[in-house]
Each structure stands twice: as C-alpha cells, then as structure tokens.
TrEMBL record:
SUPFAM superfamilies hit by this protein: Integrin domains (SSF69179)
The protein's name: Uncharacterized protein
Compartments, as annotated in UniProt: Membrane
Transmembrane segments: 266-289
Top-level lineage group: Eukaryota
Amino acid sequence: MRVDVEHEIHALPPPSVSNALICFAFLQVAFRLDFEFSKSVFLQSLEIFLTTKSDSEEQESTKGDNSVLLKLPLKYESDLLFTRSSSQDYYEVKPNRSLERYDSIGPPFNGTFKLQNLGLFPVDGVAIKITVPVATRGGNRLLQLSGFRVHEGTTKCHIGGNNTDYRRAPSDEDLGRHPQLNRSNSDMISIDCSVNLAANGEVSFLLSGNLWMKSLRAMRFKSLRLVIHAALQRGFRSAFVFREEDPSRQIVFEISKVEDSQVPTWIIIGSTLGGLLLLGLLVLALWKLGFFKSADRKREADPGQSGKDLD
C-alpha cells in the first residue's frame, strides 16, 4: 500500500534580523521529521522526497543536488509468544532392570514448542531451528526420535544432520566431563522450519521418542542433562524484529543413575566373623572378671531359699 503526503518547509530569517540574507555560504539547515504509523496499515518501506528552492538566482549546474529521494525500510516489533512444554523432565536409571516399567528401548517422552502471534499483522520471514541430541561423540545413542509433526500454521520443514555411526553394543563412555549434552558436544538431529503466522495465529512443533536405556545403563555418569534447543531466526529481508535478544527455548531431560546397593559377599562374611570374634572376646572378659563364678557361689550359699521357691 502506498500513501503520499506533501508538505512544505520554509526557512525564514529570525525576527531580530530584518531584510538580511539567510543563505550564507556553506549554510546548513537541520530539521526533524516525526511519523506516526497506523496500526491497521502495514507498510514495507517509507519514501521521503526532499527538494529545496529559493528566490535567489542559482546556476543550472548546481541545481542537480537540490533534491533527494530517501527510501527507508520499516521494521515492526513482532508480538510473538514462544513457549515450550514436556512430558518427561526427570528420569532415574535403576540398577535392577526388573523395576523398569518400559520396554527394551526406554521411557517415552513428548516435547512441544509453541509459537503464537499476538500482534495485529501477519508474520512472515521467520524460521525456527530445533536441535535434538541423539548420540554422544563416542557413538553411544542417547534417544530415539520417532516422531515429528507440525500442528496448524503454514510451515515448511527440513530434517537432517544425523550421520552418526552408532555402536552395535554401547560402551562404558565416561560422561563426567560433559554433565550436559547439547548441540555443542553431541551428534544432533536438526529440524529447520519456515513459519508464516496470521494475526492471532499459532503453530506447534511436536516431538516424540524414547530414551535409549541400553546406552544410559552402560555409560558412566551420576547426573546427566539432555537439552533440546529451539531458536527463532528472522530472514534478512523480514520486516519483523524480535523483542528478545535471544529468542530461544529449551526442553531439558535430567537423568540420574542410582548405584547398585547390593552388598558384596565378602563384606557379609567378614562382618559375621567379626561379630563372632567380638562376642568371644566379651565372654572371655566376663569369665576373667569372675562373673560366672560369683553366680555359682550365690546359688550354693542359699540352697534353702531355692527349695522354698520350688515349693
């Protein structure tokens, strides 16, 4: 849509100087233009045509720079609500497999990133990039991403980036130096989607899968965080800018491993022998102190009392 507005600006001498020339050599005039834009009219750019003229005589050779056309692209601050949710925030790996309630793969998870346009204008030229850590750098699988779908909205998505050669049998990889696995230290699946949102429109990105229990049991760690990262990106020619400096969200799966509490056999045998040895030393000490002899003398010294008790 094009809106044309014409206005003239006159340069006049100050009231204290009468009949004075104001067009001195190298004279510069500065002025400021303030615009108020309609909330119901979307404009891609603003064009300002400036021209100057005076009543004095001017050579034709210098009139070429008396006008200029300024074209300024307009940027609109988008009113986007970016949220995330997850069905699985914490999981505990138990040493006893019989306590697990899931199949051989592992516990399922579901994650959702949701984008809502709360503004008055449609939003285009925006993309979302989702990265999912699927394996360690040592080739141990972390999770299986079994499903991805987009609910509502106009989007085009591309999935790629996973060329991991998974180990057939998981190794005891030490993750002590990497308590958090993310896009910087893991093998990733990358999902890139272009987004077009109507006014008051919304779009949801749904992920589903399972944690990979074979690797999680084999690897060495006490606490581990798997981070699924989603970030908004604007196109170079997009008319919209984000309010946030870093418009990104994260879904974090925190996994802890419970150490096997089974007591070794040698500890049980050693504890039993130690207890018997202490009991023997206690009996020996009481015998040396005459505890058993004093009880015998007391029974021999009062036989009548014992008979009365029997009667």
